[in-house]
Amino acid sequence: MTCEQLVRYLSEYIDRGLDERLRVEAEEHLATCENCSVVLDTTRWTITLFRESGQVEIPAGGRRRLMERLSAALRGPEPGTSKPM
Amino acid sequence: MDDAKREGQLLKAIRAGDRRALAAVFDRYADRLYRLAYGVLRDRAEAEDVVQESFLALIDRIDTFEGRSRVSTWLYRVAYNRSIDRVRERRRASPGVDDDAAVPMPRSLADWSKQPDEILVDREARDMLERAIGDLPERLRAVFVLRDVEGLSTAETADVLGITTAATKVRLHRARLQLRERLADYFGRTPTSGEDP
Fold first, then answer.
1. End-to-end CA distance of chain B
2. Which end of chain B is more exposed for a tag (fewer CB within 10 A), N or C?
3. For residue range B70-122, what is the model confidence (pLDDT) as tens digits?
4. Where are the beta strands (DSSP E) in chain A?
5. DSSP track, A20-69
6. What predicted TM-score, i.e. pTM, was given to this entire model?
7. Taking CB atoms and an 8 Å limit, are A50 and B35 in contact across chains?
8. CB of A22 within 8 Å of any CB in chain B?
């Protein structure tokens, strides 16, 4: 396997989606190619960093407001008001 | 009780006007939808609006919701479509992504993978991560958030976004490599604790 092919298959390799033949070829290449090993390690680290930093949540105030609006919508319109949406 | 059965009971209760059931569904999915919407829009207020619109759509259609897809998939799909609609409104036309374009070879070969975990509490580093993902095209961001942040499978992601699994894989690959390049530009210049003197 060449470096270009390794890069092409990199995500599938990380996701364990390669068939057995390609997986073995990728591992043989990685065992001898330092540059591709760096690309693999740094890509995995990229995923980890974004996964951990991406765990944002709705702020408490916004959550409360949202739930109030949704509860009101579930109850339906108050007499004399129009239907939500 | 399995998830599908529990989901069915919650939907039935919401149909009957049970606000606790609505709160249970909200607690289960609201943050996930928020992360997807924020992932696409990069605006917290707009992401909250999208969460609201998604749940209002569920309430609006609760009587006709047939359960052909999971509630989570359905809500994700609504949240994604609403988010992309907002992007289109911002730009009038959302730039397409050429899924068949060749993936560029990595430029930076510096090994910064031994960065300590504490990097995530560094404000400058977090700002850089924010800018890096913000600079990705929205459709790549959506795939990346669903697959790598939310942990959906390729098939689930494709189902939410209404694209093929092949296109999902290509977009994910492009997103990962583009983000890696951005991080390499930053960390590759920053001395690491594991470097030789």
1. 57
2. C
3. 888 899 999 999 999 998 887 765 455 554 555 667 877 777 777 666 777 77
4. none
5. HHHHHHHHHHHHH-HHHHHHHHHHHHHHHHHHHHT-----HHHHHHHHHH
6. 0.82
7. no
8. no
